[in-house]
Amino acid sequence: MADTEDITESALLLAEYERIKEEQKTRIGFRDNLLYFTLAASIAVLAITARSGQAQLLLAVPAICLVLGWTYLVNDEKISAVGCYIRDQLGPRLAGLSGAHGTVFGWELYHRDDASRTTRKRIQTAVDLFTYLALPMTCTTAFWCSPAVQPALVAVSLVQTLALAVLGWQFLHYARR
């Protein structure tokens, strides 16, 4: 083990940077896979529903989208929080300690200045809303129009619809950042 005199604040900050960038990378992979898994699970439910003719199974899609959509959103927020922390806290502290003239960890600012960033964010928000809101609401509407409608299942579908509205609002809220 190294002497505490050998450990500098700069070394600690660089180690922290490496760890949180690794966490960010892991979260990005997990988040992106959630989108694919949500689509695959929803398509599987749709196929089972079509094969069995049991429209009440369509209510599984909103449940899937709520759980996975919230997980997607939380991971997306943490990914953004890591970038913000690096830009606003870690970079300036390290720049001050090192006497650097200019931005430390410039990529954290540079990639945000891309002229197409706003368009990409809007398109990604539309994809997220389609996957986690429009798709499950289409399934809910199909259930409501089916002969399988029962009061208890309608109540479940109304609670799901309310929860989906909250999730959609959260997607829009976080997209503004």
Structure summarized in a few sentences:
The chain has 177 residues and is an all-alpha fold. It is 79% helix and 0% strand.
The average pLDDT is: 91
Q: Give the biggest beta sheet.
A: none
State Rg: 22 Å
**Helical segment tally?**
5
Content-based structural category: mainly alpha
Report on the architecture of this protein.
The chain is 79% helix and 0% strand. By secondary structure, it is mainly alpha-helical. The chain is elongated. The model has no long low-confidence stretch (mean pLDDT 91).
Task: From the structure above, extract its key features.
177 residues, mainly alpha, 5 helices, 79% helix
SSE diagram, text form:
Layout: H1 9-52, H2 60-98, H3 107-110, H4 117-144, H5 151-175
